[in-house]
């Protein structure tokens, strides 16, 4: 592994200046689970690493039903899984975080890292899409907000500019009323990446589906919303036939790669089945 | 020594240590090669197998994918730091011996550190919680039953550590 220099900024402004100055020679290190693995495999060779562990403004999770939930970029996935405001107000997000790899990885991996690394099979991004989450990006001259659903461009590629830092993710208060869940299809081992996974969220009013979100990970070059399936649900009832008809629209939205976890066709089919099962679960939860 | 070397201070098993090294080296490598703490092992080298498990500020982590530059000023506990100074083993260590929670032994330091972390967070786990927590610590000998039994016995013994 190629040795690198380690920089320890104390503020977002310092970190942003550092990555702007370092250009292509620099890489941001959040928890290290992806960058260090890539570096050890020889797939990344940064000469300079900007470690964000010492930037207090990036840490922590805050939230209440009035303001929504703000996840600092350096909040660990274990914090997302265990912290009371998330468990209480966005239990679907805690559920998804709980299913990432192992507790050891969740102690190290971060919210910002899992988004910016942009592996299309990560667990948090589809669930953040279900909660209409918005990422905040800070660069040397501006700060902007981008919905997580618009963050991803391609495999391991996002709209985050090279001189920007993802500083936080916000779940708006209106999204917190949703009944959300996560179904990760794991035919091999519990700590594996998903073969395919589905995140969904519903609001049900008087037996009628009022809002719907469906997002899939592992179904293509990016995690993605399945908007046609969502539209098919809204305004309809909660009968199994209606849920299944919506789930039938999911495979068309996907273009999964064939790999060691299964063929593209197999993943499409499992996405359809997983969506139907998840929607049935959410409808039964909404009735209790 | 490369030109990226810097002086890094960290606490290891309660003792302040100073190493001059490239910050990109893994914590595991520095523990084993610079500090002669060879309990943590390198298995997969990419954070999957758990043989290199240590605690960083009390949190269970894979020391093979933690660059040592990241633990500047932080507190690391390895398997060597669990037993009392007089050598008295912790309930977790004792239970692994009594239950036969190992065979070849290469994964055992990681198993013991992971089990210790579990019982600090959750002193009385259900068997299912033990299995789930220990998922990331691979063992190719035991078939895991005796490991789960050891963790449950250690929990029954009342606490996961001696301090």
UniProtKB/TrEMBL annotation, chain A:
<dbReference type="InterPro" id="IPR016169">
    <property type="entry name" value="FAD-bd_PCMH_sub2"/>
</dbReference>
<dbReference type="InterPro" id="IPR016166">
    <property type="entry name" value="FAD-bd_PCMH"/>
</dbReference>
<dbReference type="InterPro" id="IPR002346">
    <property type="entry name" value="Mopterin_DH_FAD-bd"/>
</dbReference>
<dbReference type="InterPro" id="IPR005107">
    <property type="entry name" value="CO_DH_flav_C"/>
</dbReference>
<dbReference type="Pfam" id="PF03450">
    <property type="entry name" value="CO_deh_flav_C"/>
</dbReference>
<dbReference type="GO" id="GO:0016491">
    <property type="term" value="F:oxidoreductase activity"/>
</dbReference>
<dbReference type="InterPro" id="IPR016167">
    <property type="entry name" value="FAD-bd_PCMH_sub1"/>
</dbReference>
<keyword id="KW-0274">FAD</keyword>
<dbReference type="InterPro" id="IPR051312">
    <property type="entry name" value="Diverse_Substr_Oxidored"/>
</dbReference>
<keyword id="KW-0285">Flavoprotein</keyword>
<protein>
    <submittedName>
        <fullName>Carbon-monoxide dehydrogenase medium subunit</fullName>
    </submittedName>
</protein>
<dbReference type="GO" id="GO:0071949">
    <property type="term" value="F:FAD binding"/>
</dbReference>
<dbReference type="Pfam" id="PF00941">
    <property type="entry name" value="FAD_binding_5"/>
</dbReference>
<keyword id="KW-0560">Oxidoreductase</keyword>
<dbReference type="InterPro" id="IPR036318">
    <property type="entry name" value="FAD-bd_PCMH-like_sf"/>
</dbReference>
<feature type="domain" description="FAD-binding PCMH-type">
    <location>
        <begin position="1"/>
        <end position="176"/>
    </location>
</feature>
<dbReference type="InterPro" id="IPR036683">
    <property type="entry name" value="CO_DH_flav_C_dom_sf"/>
</dbReference>
From TrEMBL, chain B:
<keyword id="KW-0560">Oxidoreductase</keyword>
<dbReference type="InterPro" id="IPR012675">
    <property type="entry name" value="Beta-grasp_dom_sf"/>
</dbReference>
<dbReference type="InterPro" id="IPR051452">
    <property type="entry name" value="Diverse_Oxidoreductases"/>
</dbReference>
<keyword id="KW-0479">Metal-binding</keyword>
<dbReference type="Pfam" id="PF00111">
    <property type="entry name" value="Fer2"/>
</dbReference>
<dbReference type="InterPro" id="IPR036884">
    <property type="entry name" value="2Fe-2S-bd_dom_sf"/>
</dbReference>
<dbReference type="InterPro" id="IPR006058">
    <property type="entry name" value="2Fe2S_fd_BS"/>
</dbReference>
<dbReference type="GO" id="GO:0051537">
    <property type="term" value="F:2 iron, 2 sulfur cluster binding"/>
</dbReference>
<dbReference type="GO" id="GO:0046872">
    <property type="term" value="F:metal ion binding"/>
</dbReference>
<dbReference type="Pfam" id="PF01799">
    <property type="entry name" value="Fer2_2"/>
</dbReference>
<dbReference type="GO" id="GO:0016491">
    <property type="term" value="F:oxidoreductase activity"/>
</dbReference>
<keyword id="KW-0411">Iron-sulfur</keyword>
<dbReference type="InterPro" id="IPR036010">
    <property type="entry name" value="2Fe-2S_ferredoxin-like_sf"/>
</dbReference>
<dbReference type="InterPro" id="IPR002888">
    <property type="entry name" value="2Fe-2S-bd"/>
</dbReference>
<feature type="domain" description="2Fe-2S ferredoxin-type">
    <location>
        <begin position="6"/>
        <end position="82"/>
    </location>
</feature>
<protein>
    <submittedName>
        <fullName>Carbon-monoxide dehydrogenase small subunit</fullName>
    </submittedName>
</protein>
<keyword id="KW-0408">Iron</keyword>
<keyword id="KW-0001">2Fe-2S</keyword>
<dbReference type="InterPro" id="IPR001041">
    <property type="entry name" value="2Fe-2S_ferredoxin-type"/>
</dbReference>
